[in-house]
Amino acid sequence: MTASDLRQRVRDRSVIIFALVVPLALMFVFNLTSGGAANLTLKPVTVAVSAPAGDDLATAITATLTQVEGIDLTVDEVSADDARSSARSGDAELGVVIPAGFGDAVRAGKEVVVEVTEGEDSGIESDIVLTVVQGVLTQLSAGAVTAAAGAGAGVPDAQLAALAQQAATQAPEITLTQGEAASEQLSSSAALIAGQAGLFLLFTVGFGVLGLVAEREQGTLARLRSMPMRPWLIVTAKGLVSYILGVVATSVLLTLGSMFFDVSFGSPVAVAVLILCAVAAATSLMFIIARVARTAEQASVLQSILALLLGIAGGAFFPLNTTGFLDVVVGLNPIAAFTRGLGITSGGGGLGDIGVPVMLMLGFAVVGLAASRLVPDRGRDL
């Protein structure tokens, strides 16, 4: 019976469309609309700088700009008028004019203004350069603050210049070291794949179990029950069809999504366990719908509503940031647990690290199966 139903479902084009074609198409569409920000490419930028000759602190600003990493930045050293005109004409995205006597003013603790002219085509690249310039000026302005504080404390004038220069040029005491935290969070592309796979899993498993409602309407279920077999074997066969379809479709979606979007979900064994548990939870929900729905149309509507609710709450379209009691409720969602488990495996976690998501999904499956036997059957008994 299971094999016969599987052959029938595979020949049904709607199964292929809902299980594979539609989710893959949505993955590509959403990746095109939201993936641009994650894959931002910085354009080359030119900065025209006018710095007084022989001023070591002014030269430090120019030298810092030439060492900026992650952006193709060209520094043209020109006169003050040329720096302004280059930015206005579009030959440079930024024009920076450092006034004469800049270094002496900083050492003496006096106020000094650096003029910046933005071009019409300036964008995020120019903002990055401005942030770098502002950071250098902030460090140099520490010299002015030090000189003023020293003068207020009665430090001799002969020592103020040395103190100001030391404060302006001293390296920061705090350094940053880049690392990676096990945040259980997927990248934008990986989250999109996992969310769509989880959402359409709830549609795919319905092709098996919810077939009970259609056969009940058509009268074929009564004929099946009249055959020399136990009634629970019919339900089991439909459940196996749902389970097999769900496992195959979800595995294919994760595999193709990983290939097309160049992401990795980690250990294949751990991912396989997550898929098996997620499909079990989704299938149990279909048994409840089969008991509650009177007609196949009602079953289809209930399936769509629950799939969208659980899919959206599980991050199928966008991540949800919840706290407190709402976070606990959302965490019980099997799609959210599935996505969380994939976040763990993608970060290098194995079987021993996905215990919580697995228990949540298996617990949902057990509760769902128990509820399917307790809720009143609005149609005829299965």
UniProtKB/TrEMBL annotation:
CC annotations in GO: plasma membrane
GO molecular function terms noted in the UniProt entry: ABC-type transporter activity
Keywords, in A-Z order: Cell membrane, Membrane, Transmembrane, Transmembrane helix
Primary site of residence: membrane
Pfam families: ABC2_membrane_3
Family annotation (InterPro entries): ABC-2_transporter_component (IPR051449), ABC2_TM (IPR013525)
Domain of life: Bacteria
Membrane-topology annotation of the record: Multi-pass membrane protein
Coiled coil region boundaries: none
The keyword Transmembrane helix appears for this protein: yes
Chain ranges passing through the membrane: 15-33, 193-214, 235-261, 267-289, 301-320, 354-375
Localization annotation: Cell membrane
Residues annotated as domain ABC-2 type transporter transmembrane: 13-372
Alphabetized PANTHER family for the sequence: MEMBRANE COMPONENT OF ABC TRANSPORTER YHHJ-RELATED (PTHR30294), MULTIDRUG ABC TRANSPORTER PERMEASE YBHS-RELATED (PTHR30294:SF29)
Name the UniProt record assigns to this protein: ABC transporter permease
